UniProtKB/TrEMBL annotation:
InterPro entries: 4Fe4S_Fe-S-bd, 4Fe4S_Fe_S_CS, Cys_rich_dom, Glc_ox_4Fe-4S, Helical_ferredxn. It catalyses: (R)-lactate + A = pyruvate + AH2; glycolate + A = glyoxylate + AH2. This is Glycolate oxidase iron-sulfur subunit. PANTHER family: GLYCOLATE OXIDASE IRON-SULFUR SUBUNIT. The keyword Secreted does not apply. The gene is glcF. The lineage of its organism: Bacteria, Bacillati, Actinomycetota, Actinomycetes, Pseudonocardiales.
């Protein structure tokens, strides 16, 4: 396009850009730089391109390609000694790209399809029946091979779906067990609610067992995480307003979320709605109550008895939990407090698994390489169970392990804690992509 790359509506901040001293500490942690060794596909390279845009250079297809290649994993934020707020820079840039860059017809159609389905739980729910029938048919392998040759993005999307079991609905209100310690509003999510209902059921049980009344409003919808992380600002703001409204009058002392990407987005509502006079203050108050479920449980301390769970696990840091929210110690503490459990660390923990919301669908080549790299690092631990805290990570690593033919099971952190509190056997925790292996949650 002709004219400056960025318009006047919240372009990347020149002051934030100037914080980068181009030292290169971000390079070893950047997944795309690790893959390709290309300077413009590193955080400091992208910051250089943003600077060109701020100075009035046009937005070229090459510039957009480098922005699109970023996973938004925020590992560079953790690594940066200068405190560069790359998260704010890339989100502002992506909003500009979505408004000002004309995408190809194929790209527009794919993005439209994704954003017409994934942020809408009812639409996802309608897919469960056909998807379960498809999975039971055994056609997955042949279909994947055909799609892989002709339509790699669709092949990537097909490969990610976890095996679906019966749907589990979380009641709107669940009373605390034992002495009541407060009320927690529970965010159900979209993909989490429909593809991993067992995670939500486990979350509600654990919170109740730990003495919290649980409120899960049925009217709640998407939090807007996928939209905000892909530059769809107006759409993200609309979802944020509706979620804030859904918890009005709930009496919740905290808002608990069990998906790392969702929690990261919800903690940014104050910035997302800062220009909205009707919601700016409400967004700040809402954000102040948002906690990842592991963060909340670690803050409040345990009261429910932990039964022994003799299992060895590998713990994977979801990027939007570890890097975007700075939550690393809390889930590990919860897991290590379980009697009999052994926790092993994964090599290269700072490198993203390649999921990154919908990155693995839009960029199946890079996403697939990173998924295989993460899967091999998981296997290097020798642990039979991989534990993490984000549905996208679970699907991505499960698909990569399945492609390698390895029977490692996977579980959400809260499912492991739930099994310990309920005294369930260790071999019943987790699931694997192959129906030959452990049961689906």
């Amino acid at each position: 396009m002709t004219g400056p790359a960025f318009d006047d509506h919240h372009p990347p901040s020149a002051d934030l850009l100037d914080d980068c001293v181009h030292c290169g500490f971000c390079l070893p942690t950047c997944p795309t730089y690790q893959l390709w060794g290309e300077e413009m596909d590193s955080p400091r390279g992208r910051i250089y391109l943003m600077g060109l845009g701020v100075e009035g250079e046009p937005m070229t297809p090459e510039m957009v390609q480098h922005f699109d290649a970023c996973l938004g994993c925020m590992a560079c934020v953790t690594a940066c000694p200068s405190g560069v707020q790359y998260d704010k820079l890339i989100e502002a840039t992506r909003a500009q790209v979505e408004r000002r860059h004309p995408r190809s017809r194929r790209d527009r159609l794919l993005r439209r399809a994704i954003f017409s389905v994934f942020p809408y739980p009812r639409r996802l729910h309608a897919l469960r029946g056909p998807l379960r029938a498809y999975q039971a048919s055994g056609l997955g392998g042949p279909v994947r091979r055909v799609l892989g040759r002709a339509l790699p993005r669709l092949a990537a999307l097909e490969s990610l779906a976890p095996p679906l079991g019966p749907f589990q609905r979380v009641p709107e209100r669940i009373p605390a067990r034992g002495t009541r310690r407060g009320t927690v509003g529970m965010v159900l999510g979209c993909v989490q609610r429909e593809f991993f209902p067992g995670v939500n059921a486990a979350t509600a049980r654990v919170l109740a067992a730990e003495g919290f009344d649980v409120v899960a409003p049925a009217v709640q919808g998407c939090c807007g995480a996928l939209s905000v992380h892909n530059g769809r600002e107006d759409e993200a703001q609309s979802f944020a307003r509706k979620l804030i409204d859904a918890f009005d009058g709930s009496g919740a002392d905290w808002i608990a979320v069990n998906a790392a990407g969702c929690g990261s987005a919800m903690k940014e509502y104050g910035d997302l709605l800062a220009d909205d006079p009707a919601y700016a203050q409400r967004a700040r108050e809402f954000t102040a109550r948002v906690r990842d479920v592991s963060e909340l449980l670690a803050e409040q301390g345990p009261v429910a008895r932990r039964h022994p769970l003799p299992v060895t696990i590998a713990y994977h840091d979801a990027c939007h939990l570890a890097h975007a929210q700075g939550i690393r110690a809390q889930p590990r503490r919860l897991l290590r407090d379980i009697p009999g459990l052994t926790l092993r660390e994964i090599p290269e923990p700072e490198i993203c698994c390649g999921s990154a919301g919908i990155y693995n669908v839009l960029n199946p080549g890079a996403g697939g390489e990173l998924g295989e790299r993460k899967a091999r690092n998981v296997l290097a631990t020798g642990a039979p169970l991989l534990v993490t805290a984000n549905p996208g990570c679970l699907m991505q690593v499960a698909a990569a392990l399945d492609a390698l033919g390895e029977p490692v099971r996977l579980a959400h952190t809260i499912e492991v804690l739930d099994a310990s509190i309920r005294g369930l056997p260790a071999d019943g925790v987790g699931w694997a992509r192959s129906r030959r292996h452990a049961p689906h949650p």
